[in-house]
Amino acid sequence: MSGCATVAEAPDGHPLGGGVLPHIRCPPMAFPGGSAWSLARDIAEGVQLVTERTFKNLTRADLDLLSFEIERALRDLRSVAVPLEDITAIQQKNRRLQRLNGSVILLRAFRQRHKT
How far is residue 1's CA from residue 84's CA, in Å, rounded to a whole number? Predict the structure, then answer.
């Protein structure tokens, strides 16, 4: 089950019928992309840009989980050995590290400012 609930009335208040589609309400996802791991991966790849608004709707537990996943992604990325001759691979790894480090700094500043 998806966790979405079907409402028995149309948005204008009339009961369903006569070809009216059901109005479906789904709870908002905590993380863009579905999970903290996928958000950390998207940040590293440059798909998801991180601002304070990224963290605004997250709970303390969500922020803890995201922090853990970003730190794990940093450890995993640092453990990858790139050949010294492959300049583009070195640049790509450094860009990923920079994006993740920047998001960690922004997350810590957000938590300090909002005391979460």
Answer: 49
Contacts of 11 (CB under 8 A, 6+ apart): 23
pTM of the model: 0.72
Separation CA 27–CA 105 (nearest Å):
29
Domain assignments of the chain as residue spans, ordered by start: 1-28, 31-114
Tens place of pLDDT per residue across the chain (116 aa): 445 554 454 555 555 555 555 555 555 567 777 889 999 999 999 999 999 998 888 899 999 999 999 999 999 999 999 999 999 999 999 999 999 999 999 999 999 998 86
With 0-12 / 13-18 / 19 or more C-beta atoms within 10 angstroms meaning exposed / middle / buried, residue 82 is middle
Calculated CA dihedral for residues 91, 93, 99, 105, nearest 10 degrees: -110
